[in-house]
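CCD81 protein
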Amino acid sequence: QGVLVGGLGTFAMVQEQFRGKEEVYVARRPVFRLDIDVLCLQELTFPAVVIPGNVKIKPLNYKWLSRATSFPRHVVEGCVEETIALYSFQLRNRQRLAFTFKDIGVLSCEDDVLCMRFYYDCVTGLESKASRIALLHT
């Protein structure tokens, strides 16, 4: 399952197999595939993230966000769009600010590398059995 935030990227949960010394572990872990306007990323590098084709991606649910925040849907949509536009503008103008996603992680740029760092609780919340392996590979 995944969520597309138009103009920014896709958050998804992927399931991967990792070989240990004696057994194979299956771990679920979060990933983020960046999808910002290329003009903003000219001088930046970022990890290439592959989201498998079997992961269902849905657009951000503005109706749910509207209910959760008690703001009209058009206000929520405008706020999200303006926030993404502002972040893109800052990247284009070499302002390397961190973009925090509550309970998920931080999209940050250090040494011209833009990457998503997921919070410990986000990773371990997805995976109970192989959480250490998921943390290592996230």
